[in-house]
Amino acid sequence: MSTHAIEPSHAAEPMLIDRRLPHYDATTIQHVVVEAPPERAYAAAVGTDLFALARQDPVFRALFTLRILPERLMAMLRGEPFGEPAPTEGGRLRDLPTSGEWVRLGETPGEEFVFGAIGRFWGARITWETIDATEFEGFDRPGFGRIAAAISARPYGEGRTLLSYEARTAVTDPESSTAFQRYWKALGPFIGVLLHRTLTAMAKEATSPRPAG
């Protein structure tokens, strides 16, 4: 009996996130199937107000609080006041600037939106760098991590969409990698739940009846 390998008919197109952060130390990917066509699912995803979601969804809020728990505990041990980060205006991905702390890294309209940040988020103090999007790919200063996240929408059968959310992290030096891996082992699963919760809200937005007129 002879066997023959099946050759793919064409090479897969690289995703935009692959160009922004091709090598990484950790990633989490979540998916939901949306009962709406890709153009509508994508528009809902980049137009969902994430700050409103944090205010309205107690699970989302609890998971976010867990993410900043190490910083909260260290502040308590030092006897320092701790103020949770206050949301700024513009909680929609489509409104992200190309300079700041969280920035737009690129977009394939209707298909993929990539955004990211550079900071130190695994220690007693969470800090974010103010950057320009053009600095992201070449940033290699020791002691930091780069986060690239992507929302993508692909057709899934007739009239449905596979909506995906991936978040990748790459650290800039071995010492930071050791500290980050401890952080990721503890909180990585909760971050995955947070991403899935976000996708669920985006799917609900995409399938909500549109106002007349």
Biggest sheet, in brief? 6 strands, antiparallel
CATH architecture label? 2-Layer Sandwich
The H/E string reads HEHHHHEEEEEEEH
Q: Classify the secondary structure makeup into a structural class.
A: alpha+beta
Radius of gyration: 19 Å
Number of extended strands = 8
Count of the domains: 1
CATH topology descriptor = Alpha-D-Glucose-1,6-Bisphosphate, Chain A, domain 4
Q: Percent range for helical residues?
A: 25-40%
Write the layout of secondary structure elements.
Elements: H1 16-20, E1 26-34, H2 38-47, H3 50-56, H4 58-67, H5 69-77, E2 99-100, E3 103-108, E4 112-120, E5 127-128, E6 131-132, E7 145-155, E8 161-171, H6 174-207
Antiparallel strand pairs: 1-8, 2-6, 3-4, 4-5, 4-7, 7-8
Your description of this structure?
With 213 residues, the protein is of the alpha+beta class. It has one domain: 2-Layer Sandwich (Alpha-D-Glucose-1,6-Bisphosphate, Chain A, domain 4), CATH 3.30.530. The chain is built from six helices and eight strands, in the order H-E-H-H-H-H-E-E-E-E-E-E-E-H. Strand 3 and strand 4 form a beta hairpin. Helix 3 packs across helix 4. It starts with 15 loop residues before the first helix and ends in a 6-residue tail after the last helix.
